[in-house]
């Protein structure tokens, strides 16, 4: 079975869209997903399944709506896709270190979209001046490097407009999900 990662958008943020991870794991197992694990409260779910991405996404979104009463969009990537994201990071260690030195907090993120953004939306994004913040679009993923707080950046607001839905994770979360998926794979 393939290791999949479902990334939920906008749960357990600021007291809104609350879902307890233990309840979510139990509910997902009723869909026939195996070895379901979650990481932190922001909706990172690892599991095994042979179903394709559209079918899984539809089932998970429907389950969250029926069980928890929330309309939450789900982005799914395979363990191999996450590993490829990390391996293909377009920013050098030096660029990341310089960004980290410019403020306290996370500076490297990955935005994962349901689909590849349309050319006209990419052109609109390219028209903005994001100061020293940088981005690289790779298919349906966007690498983000912030020189200031992500909360104060115009880039984070504009990336959200590229393609709905999109969900963003910091680099530490991405690397932790990769490590967890590798542990799942090694346990087979």
Compose a concise summary of this entry.
This protein has 188 residues and is of the alpha+beta class.
Question: How does this model look, in words?
Answer:
The chain has 188 residues and is α+β, with helices and mostly antiparallel strands. It folds into two domains: 2-79, Alpha-Beta Plaits, CATH 3.30.70.1280; 87-176, 2-Layer Sandwich (Alpha-Beta Plaits). The protein has seven helices and eight strands; from the N terminus they run βαββαβααβαββαβα. The chain has helices spanning 21-29, 53-68, 79-87, 93-102, 119-126, 154-160, 171-186, and strands spanning 2-8, 34-39, 44-49, 74-78, 108-113, 134-138, 141-145, 166-170. Helix 3 packs across helix 7. The protein starts with a strand and ends with a helix. It comes from Paenibacillus lignilyticus. This is DUF1697 domain-containing protein.
């Amino acid at each position: 079975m393939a290791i999949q990662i479902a990334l939920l958008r906008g749960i357990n943020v600021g007291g809104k869209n609350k879902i307890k991870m233990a309840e979510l794991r139990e509910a997902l197992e009723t869909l026939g997903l195996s070895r379901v694990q979650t990481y932190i409260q922001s909706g990172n779910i690892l599991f095994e399944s042979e179903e394709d991405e559209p079918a899984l996404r539809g089932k998970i979104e429907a389950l969250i709506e029926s069980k928890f009463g929330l309309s939450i969009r789900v982005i799914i990537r395979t363990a191999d896709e996450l590993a490829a994201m990390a391996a293909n990071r377009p920013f050098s260690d030096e660029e990341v270190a310089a960004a980290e030195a410019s403020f306290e907090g996370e500076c490297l993120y990955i935005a994962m979209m349901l689909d590849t953004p349309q050319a006209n939306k990419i052109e609109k994004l390219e028209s903005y001046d994001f100061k020293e913040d940088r981005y690289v679009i790779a298919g349906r993923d966007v690498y983000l490097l912030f020189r200031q707080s992500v909360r104060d950046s115009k880039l984070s607001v504009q990336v959200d407009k590229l393609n709905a839905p999109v969900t963003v994770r910091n680099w530490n979360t991405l690397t932790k999900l990769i490590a967890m998926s590798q542990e799942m794979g090694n346990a087979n």
